[in-house]
Amino acid sequence: MSEAVETPARRAFYDKIDKQNLTPLWTVLSSIITPEPKSAAQPYLWRFDEIRDYMIEAGGLITAKEAERRVLVLENPGLRGKSSITTSLYAGVQLVLPGEVAPAHRHSQSALRFVLQGEGAHTTVGGERTKMHVGDFIITPSQSWHDHGNDSDKPIFWLDGLDVPLVSMLDASFMEHWTSDEQPVSRPEGDSLARYGANLLPVDQKTRNLTSPVFNYPYARTREALETMRRSHEFDPCHGLKMRYTNPETGEHAIPTIGAFIQLLPKGFATSRYRSTDATVMTVVEGTGRTKIGDRTFEWKPQDIFVVPSWHSVVHEADEDAVIFSFSDRPVQEKLGLYREDRGNA
Ligand code: 1HN
C-alpha cells in the first residue's frame, strides 16, 4: 500500500488540524505499522580492550562514589542519546577500583551484572553480600537495595544490563538513596544460593517472587553444567548448547523483564541462520570466532560485547570452544504474546 499523495487542499487541512494536536493517520500508518520489525538499532560490537583503556582513564577522572556508578554506557549507534543498547534495554561497563564503594541505592529498574574481569570484589543485594568472579551472573531485583565494593587489589569490570528504556517508556521509574554508603549485611554469604539454588525450596514458603531469589549464579557451576551436557553431543543447529537462567521458584526467567542465557559453541561449530524479535546483547566469556548479524560480520574475543537488533539474522562461527552470555527482553515479549523466531529461513 502506498502513501496517499499530498494535494494542496490536504496540506492545508493537515496544517489546520495540526494546531489542535491532531494528525491524519493515513500519512503515518505505513511507518508505524511495518510488515516486519524495522529497528532503529544497528548491529555493533565494542572491543573490551578499548573500553578497558577508556574506563581506566575515567578512573583517573572521577571516583565511583562521586559518579555513584562509574559506567560507560554502550549506546547503540542507531539510538545515540537514548542510553539504550536496544530499543528496550540499557547496557554499560562498570569499573570499581580497589578500595572503592559504589554507594547503596534502589530503583524500580531491574539489573543484571555479568563479571568481565577482576576477582573478589563484592556486591550487596537486599542485605546479602556476594563475591564476584569472572562469568558470574548476578541480579539486582527491582526495588532491592544494592551497593558494590572492591576490597581486592585489582580493578573489577562488569557488564550491566538494565530495563531502563522499558521502564522509561512505561513512566514507572522510582529511585532512592540509602542513608550511608553501604547497607547493613543481615544474612550470611551464600544464604540465598543455599536456600534456593540447591534444587531445594523452603517447605512452607508460599510466596513466589517475580525475580529469582538466587542472586548470584556462579560461573563455576554454569560452566560445569555446559561441560557435562556437551558430552551427549546434542547441539541445536541455531544455538549450539544454549541454556536460560531461571527463577527456581517458578521456572520462569530469572528477571521478569530480562531473559539471560549462556551458550557453548564447540570448536569449529557454525550455527544455522536464526532471527527473533528479541534484540539481544551478547558478551564472549571464552573463545574466539565471528558472528554475522544481517550483512555485517564481527570478529570477537573474550569480553567483547555485541548487539543483535530485533529480526536481524544471526550466524555464529567458533574457532575454539566458545561460551557466550546474552540477555534480551524475551520474557516481556513472551508474556505479551509478541515473541517470534525464525529458524533457518532468514
Ligand atoms: C545502577 O543502579 C547500576 O547499581 C549500574 O551498579 C548502572 C544504570 C542506570 C540506572 C541505574 C548499579 C545503572 C544503574
Quick rundown:
The chain contains 8 helices and 22 strands.
Give a written overview of the molecule.
By secondary structure, this protein is α+β, with helices and mostly antiparallel strands. It has a single domain, classed as Sandwich (Jelly Rolls), CATH 2.60.120.10. The chain is 18% helix and 31% strand. The protein is built from eight helices and 22 strands. The strands form five sheets. The chain has a six-stranded antiparallel β-sheet. Strand 6 and strand 7 form a beta hairpin. The protein is globular, with a radius of gyration of 22 Å. The two termini are 24 Å apart. It binds 1-hydroxynaphthalene-2-carboxylic acid (1HN). 1-hydroxynaphthalene-2-carboxylic acid binds next to strand 3, strand 4, strand 9 and strand 10. The site of 1-hydroxynaphthalene-2-carboxylic acid (1HN) has 13 residues, from strand 3, strand 4, strand 9 and strand 10.
